[in-house]
Amino acid sequence: MKKIMKHGGDLLTYKDKFHGELIDYSSNINPLGTPPNLEAKIMENFSTVTSYPDIKYRELKKSVGKYLGCEISNVVVGNGAMEIIDLFNLISKRVLTLSPAFSEYSFRAKIHNKEYLELKYKEDFTIDMEELEANIRKDDLIILGNPNNPTGMRIPKDELIGIYELVKMREAYLVLDEAFFEFVPEDYDSIEIFREYGYENIGIIRAATKFFGMPGIRLGYGCVSKEMVEILDEKAVTWSVNCFADIAGRYIFDEKEYIEKSKAYIACEREFMLKQLKDIDGLYIYNTLTNYILIKLKNRDEEEVFEEFLKYGFVIRKCSSFKVLGDNHIRIAIKDRENNMKILDAFKQIKF
Predict the structure, then answer these.
(1) End-to-end Cα spacing for the chain
(2) Residue 188 carries which DSSP code?
(3) Residue 135: pLDDT above 90?
(4) CA 128/CA 198 separation, integer angstroms
(5) Which residues 6+ apart lie within 8 Å of 67 measured at CB?
(6) How far apart, in whole angstroms, are the C-alpha atoms of residue 282 and residue 317?
């Protein structure tokens, strides 16, 4: 029976398939690891485990607001970005997304018994604006990955503004999931664009998980209107952000050297990986602006290719769980040069 891979990072399921340490190319985490001294910061403040975190997360929100460039009164925090997005699902009437996209958007809508509409991106993974306009109605929650997972594509600035104007006119609400924001080449910042609107009808959600290399410390954060902060706070679980995430969030955003080094490193490795992969027959390599690459298998099935990569010690991401992609797509992370060279060697050995 074929196993559907709902999420990446599940190495334990495949630990007996390879005699040695598996290398995880199914999840997309900063290959440089966590910011320096994060462990020391946590240990310095380890005694905080004996107390509840500040129920209003004032210092954490101050740190997030400074990093994002928005007022503290606009900041929302949560146990990962998905908890915040889940709260939007909870308070919505109908959820609208575009496919392919992160499966949790639709899954959480179904969990909350919300009406759900799934449109499709065009074949080049751009948004069909006419179809979107034809389907948005009052009180809809529209969730868009920016950049999107698994495609790695970002919404062009002018198009994003057009979507926002449409959403606002229809009295709907737009959530931008920008969990991979820092990996993208700098062109625009959604938080700056919508500051003048007071973030009315829009929530911009980001996370420490990917870029800051700490998926085990669940910390999501974002910028919304002051009114929406109050609405979400009423529905949120009390103390959902634990003390370690609170400590990390007060420290990591000041690590400017780490942030710039990480951006430059990923940009270099992304260019390297795209160039190398495009020379391999049997593959269609989609362009990406992030730290992962979506690949179409022209002649092979994802399951067969997945098993072959396991023989070389790599866990890649099967993409059939992303609706509309079918069983002929895989996704790989972009890691450090040493491991990237290793997986490229495996790509060259496998017949596609």
Answers:
(1) 23
(2) -
(3) yes
(4) 27
(5) 253
(6) 18
The helix-helix angle for 337-349 and 256-277 (nearest 10°) equals 20
Residue 141 host element (H or E): strand 140-145
Contact assessment for residue 219 and residue 248, using Cβ atoms and an 8 Å cutoff: yes
Q: What is the pLDDT of residues 169-225, one digit of tens each?
A: 999 999 999 999 999 998 999 999 999 999 999 999 999 999 999 999 999 999 999
* List of domains in the chain: 12-34+256-349 (3.90.1150.10), 38-254 (3.40.640.10)
Q: What's phi and psi for 297, nearest 5 deg?
A: -90, 115
Between CA 350 and CA 352 the distance in angstroms is 6
Asked whether the predicted pLDDT for residue 10 surpasses 70, the reply is: no
Tell me how crowded residue 153 is: count the other CB atoms within 10 A of its CB. 22
pLDDT digits (tens, 9 = 90+) for 73-103: 999 999 999 999 999 999 999 999 999 998 8
What are the strands, taking DSSP E only, across 226-342?
283-285, 292-297, 314-315, 317-318, 329-333
